[in-house]
Amino acid sequence: MREKAVSIITISNSKKDLEKTFHYVLENCKNFSGKWEYIIVSAEEKTTKEKTSEDHIKREKDNIKHIVVWRSGFSFQRNIGVKNARHNIIVFIDDGMRLEENWLENISKPILDGSADAVMGAVLPELKPERDFQTFFQNVLALSQSVLGFPAGGLKYFALGSNFIDSFSTANLAIKKEIIENVGGFDENLIFGAEDSDLSLRIKMLKPQTKFLYSKTAISYAEPRKSVEEIKKWFFRRGRSLATLKKKYYESPIKTLLPRELIIPKLVMSFSLLPPLTLPIFSISYIVRSEKLLFDVVNKTPEKFFPRRYLPFLIFFTPYVKLVMDTYYSLGYYYQLLTQRNRK
Question: Under CATH, to which class is 5-343 assigned?
Answer without folding.
Answer: alpha beta
